[in-house]
Amino acid sequence: DEDELQDRIVAARRALGDRVVLLGHFYQRDEVVRHADYVGDSFQLARAATAHPDAEAMVFCGVHFMAETADLLSGSEQAVVLPHLGAGCSMADMADVDSVADCWEQLEALYGTEADDQGRQPVVPVTYMNSSAALKAFVGERGGIVCTSSNASAVLEWAFERGRRVLFFPDQHLGRNTAKAMGVPLERMPTWAPGRPLGGNTAEQLEQARVILWHGFCSVHRRFTVDQIERARAEHPGVHVMVHPECPMPVVDAADSSGSTDAIVKTVQAAPAGSTFAIGTEINLVQRLAAQHPEHTIFCLDPVICPCSTMYRVHPAYLAWVLEELVAGRVANRITVPGEQAEHARTALRRMLAVAP
Ligand code: 13P
Ligand code: SF4
């Protein structure tokens, strides 16, 4: 039962001591994050992955691309363990390397490969952290960079200095919301639908493009709607509506603020007692914030419970199992990024860490 699982996790952690570091994303369920040494958003966890080079293993309670990133940024001897190998991300799966390479070839044919007289490349590729290591390597090898939801505008600024255009993937919404806030007009942000010639655009549209947005999205965040915001405002006058930038543009525009999971947490922490928040992000985080802040009224914008189903696969039973394996001297579910891919992917990640330390 649940209590027994919790006892097993605590006992295994005690037996392992400092040999193991446990990282947990904000979207993980409480029964898992309560055991984490670090809880954070994907950028904070990427940084935390570099902070314990002496630990033998890092158990990453999150999804596959985060564990890959931890493997890239931690020491090569350190094993990174993902408690459930099926904990992927449907958005990351929307940009496979073959489709992106096909897009890249078409763009090269259209724009050429020469820098302009200010030294700017025709296109700079930017990948959201929510992507495979193979894609981060693709980007790293082509002068590109990684971003997260907490540093997307600083990273886009970096890319605009180096390129006449940006190819942004996989999340069209984060790309659109960020570029729009930076003043890029919507007509200069075509969307690239993989599998169609020119991604479903005309050559003229691509010629005047500033940001080309890959047709990816988060199935959790795209559920939030402007109707839900209007209802929250009608039922709770004075409510502060706060959403994640993976939400569609009309939702971000209608909200009072948008930000990464960590920005959402910090806004709640800084608010005067008695505040009311309607939050558009994953339910585990919203419910935890509500429990931790009884001085506020906090609820999810979507009345239907909407967990990230892949994050949710990290059940305490898997956590107990991988920890007990480590106690027994075995490493289960190790995530490793192969050599040459790792080198290029690390280049793209290090560029991000230099832009937004
Ligand atoms: P952040 O942790 O960067 O806010 O991203 C949310 C998310 O969707 C993680 O998969
Ligand atoms: Fe992927 Fe969305 Fe889940 Fe984040 S919340 S892991 S983007 S599916």
TrEMBL record:
Its EC number is 2.5.1.72. GO terms for biological process: 'de novo' NAD+ biosynthetic process from L-aspartate. [4Fe-4S] cluster binds at residues 89, 218, 308. GO terms for cellular component: cytosol. The keyword Transferase applies. Binds 1 [4Fe-4S] cluster per subunit. Its main location: cytoplasm. Keywords: 4Fe-4S, Cytoplasm, Iron, Iron-sulfur, Metal-binding, Pyridine nucleotide biosynthesis, Transferase. Its cofactor is [4Fe-4S] cluster. It catalyses: iminosuccinate + dihydroxyacetone phosphate = quinolinate + phosphate + 2 H2O + H(+). Iminosuccinate binds at residues 25, 42, 128-130, 149, 244-246, 261. GO terms for molecular function: 4 iron, 4 sulfur cluster binding; metal ion binding; quinolinate synthetase A activity. Signal peptide: none annotated. Pathway: Cofactor biosynthesis; NAD(+) biosynthesis; quinolinate from iminoaspartate: step 1/1. It is found in: Cytoplasm. It comes from the Bacteria. The keyword Transmembrane does not apply. It is an enzyme of class 2 (transferase). Catalyzes the condensation of iminoaspartate with dihydroxyacetone phosphate to form quinolinate. Belongs to the quinolinate synthase family. Type 3 subfamily. This is Quinolinate synthase. The chain holds residues 80 to 436 of 449 of the full protein.
